[in-house]
Write a structure and sequence with these properties.
78% of the residues lie in helices and 0% in strands. It is mainly α and 188 residues long.
Length: 188
């Protein structure tokens, strides 16, 4: 077993340098002026970074306001009452995932902080910890992606993209909870 882990360590240490060497070799074979290409790409990347700063600032402001408002607790309370009314008391523990479900479309680092909080309160091997991990992998930072990528190419009319992305986030959250219950059975 130690030989396998050592092999993985060696492969992981050499993966990025090998990829870089492969790119350099391929560029040399194709006679690409590598340094000039790199400098040109860096200039373009810096210009794009400057161009998207206003979009990022606006998004970060909205995220902070949304998270500081306490809306997650109010929503959870209302949903617990609704679930108890229709006889779904056994599933109210999954509502602890609500802050993660609403944070992930906004920010990956904020969602990671919420997931780590779930780990601290319930444990990483608990139903909520495992389901939070599934949820992190099955949803996307929709607003961040739309802000950065659409802002970088200056698309102002996103048409149906936001609705489609949010729908896939909802499907990802529902699938994460489904698989959480399927594989971990709601045990704590």
């Amino acid at each position: 077993m130690d030989d396998i882990l050592y092999s993985f360590d060696v492969v992981s240490q050499w993966a990025i340098p090998a990829a870089i060497l492969l790119i350099i070799t391929w560029a040399a074979v194709k006679r690409v002026p590598m340094y000039e290409s790199f400098v040109t790409g860096a200039k373009e990347g810096f210009g794009i970074a400057i161009m998207i700063i206003p979009y990022l600032v606006a998004m970060l402001f909205v995220i902070k306001v949304f998270m500081a408002s306490g809306i997650f607790d109010d929503m959870k309370y209302g949903l617990v009452l609704a679930m108890q009314t229709v006889g779904l008391d056994a599933y109210t523990d999954s509502l602890d995932l609500l802050p993660l479900a609403f944070t992930k479309p906004l920010t990956g680092s904020g969602a990671r902080a919420v997931m780590l909080d779930i780990f601290d309160r319930h444990g990483p091997d608990s139903f909520l910890g495992m389901t939070a991990s599934i949820m992190m992998g099955s949803t996307e930072t929709t607003f961040y992606v739309l802000t950065v990528y659409f802002g970088a190419v200056q698309i102002k009319k996103i048409r149906h993209t936001l609705a489609a992305c949010l729908w896939t986030d909802v499907v990802g959250v529902v699938a994460a909870i489904f698989f959480g219950y399927l594989f971990y059975g709601g045990r704590h």
